[in-house]
Write a structure and sequence with these properties.
Layout: H1 13-37, H2 43-60, E1 64-68, E2 79-83, H3 90-95, E3 101-105, H4 114-120, E4 124-126, H5 131-146, E5 150-153, H6 173-179, E6 182-191, H7 209-218, E7 223-228, E8 232-233, H8 239-253
Parallel strand pairs: 1-7, 2-5, 2-6, 3-4, 3-5
Antiparallel strand pairs: 6-7, 6-8
Length: 276
């Protein structure tokens, strides 16, 4: 993986500096908001501010959002939102349209500023190297869904380069089965304005988090396509059939083949990720 976004034009140095300054100020305001104002707000207020803040983050970085399909609403009750995973920006791209509480790998908690920000915004962290931890997170997810939350998961368990969808892990779908949730599949694609995929925008390989931020800030003409599929009712499914149906929906949304290996949802739950 190249250390630069060679597939996209680059903005000039003054624009990069301007974006950095605005980004740092925006992150500071966000951290102050979740630390001091979120505790006093109800979920509707938090969702509205989170959506606005996430949309502004993408604008600051010069990233355009293209929305396809019908979003389920700002913070749809008892909804299990799932998407393919390409970048650390996925969380903010999704929140710019439909706000959720996310499940993320525990390492993200240690990221500079972003880790503290998402933690205080209600993100659940999972140890993917510990199979038992999926049981703990499933119990929290199911309870939150029953109470009317919108919860989001990246079932691939790691990022891809955006040109394909990795097999979905079925473990966390058990919460949606228990809660009888609506599963909302979403396809994410990082592309140029003409719709061609930009795999160099993915957060994969040896690229560090700070390198990825610099790459995004330096790029010009990057778009994130957010493709909402038809929702799936979790009632009557097992976690395996639900994961398989959701994976097929995401593949269709991204115009990828829906043919999957028989073992696609049979991967042992909680297996250590090969990448991020």
């Amino acid at each position: 993986m190249s250390a630069t976004l060679t597939a996209l034009p680059q903005v000039g140095f003054p624009v990069r500096v301007h974006r950095w300054l605005k980004l740092l100020a925006h992150l500071g305001r966000g951290l102050a908001t979740v630390s001091f104002r979120f505790p006093a707000w109800d979920m509707a207020q938090r969702a509205a501010v989170s959506q606005q803040w996430s949309a502004q983050l993408l604008t600051i970085m010069g990233i355009e959002v293209k929305l396809l399909g019908q979003p389920p609403g700002l913070y749809p009750a008892n909804t299990f939102l799932i998407a393919n995973h390409v970048s650390w920006l996925d969380i903010f791209a999704l929140n710019s349209v439909t706000v959720s509480r996310f499940v993320a790998k525990r390492e993200i908690r240690q990221w500079p500023v972003i880790g503290m920000l998402v933690a205080r915004a209600g993100t659940l962290f999972i140890d993917r190297s510990n199979r038992r931890d999926a049981l703990r997170v499933n119990e929290i997810l199911a309870s939150s869904l029953r109470e009317g939350d919108c919860m989001a998961v990246f079932p691939e368990g790691t990022t891809s380069d955006g040109t394909s969808v990795l097999p979905f892990k079925a473990s966390l779908f058990d919460s949606a089965v228990q809660a009888g949730s609506t599963v909302q599949p979403v396809g994410l694609r990082y592309c140029r304005r003409d719709g061609t995929v930009v795999p160099e925008a993915a957060y994969v390989g040896e690229v560090t988090f700070l390198q990825s931020v610099r790459q995004m800030i330096a790029s010009e003409g990057l778009c994130i396509e957010i493709r909402f599929s038809e929702p799936i009712c979790g009632v009557g499914h097992t976690r395996f059939t639900l994961a398989q149906s959701a994976e097929r929906a995401v593949r269709r949304a991204l115009n990828l083949s829906c043919e999957m290996p028989d073992t696609a949802v049979g991967i042992p739950d909680g297996r250590q990720d090969a990448g991020r």
